[in-house]
Amino acid sequence: MNRFFQTPPVVKNLIIINLLIFMATALLPVGERIMGWGALSLGTPLFHTYQFITYMFLHANFEHIFFNMFALWMFGRTLEYELGSKRFLIYYMICGVGAALIQYLTALAFGELPLFLVGASGAVMGLLLAFGVMHPNAVIMLLIPPIPMKAKWFVIIYAVIELFLGWRGVGNVAHFAHIGGMLWGFLLLHWWKRRGIIRF
Prior knowledge:
Blueprint: H1 9-27, H2 31-38, E1 40-42, H3 51-54, H4 62-83, H5 85-110, E2 115-117, H6 121-134, E3 139-141, E4 148-150, H7 151-168, H8 175-194
Antiparallel strand pairs: 1-2, 3-4
């Protein structure tokens, strides 16, 4: 069967876990407690170090999880086949944790604590960066507006927009977490390249 119609194991299981946890927080009576336990609650008495991992599996609403999981499925499949399942999972988790660290440092610098953070966006932005680095001339069809664009330009434009929005403090979105996921992904990819683990 063509790989386009297949979903490798790590991507598939990440999507399943995220969906199950989202349904639990949305439908179960203990949903708010799960959210409070797992969200990254920096600068509050609720903070625990494990939240740097658990926050990635929580989402605020359907739109939030839909776009994150769609991007994970869209870009993650190719990357998992190329990196291998173990290395792909390592990359995904490092980008997610690194995204939260960058968001925390910027919030600390700008006096924006306490900070509550949920979502896989930082890790997913790391996947987008990896796809752009490893397949710079692949064409991505944007949704809004519906125009084709090479992956390398999409990544650069997206990063610049996120940096601008983060600097201006626009919206209730962790823009620096998105930048952080891309930054850690870039560093990790080039470290692997220098060690001869991957080529691009």
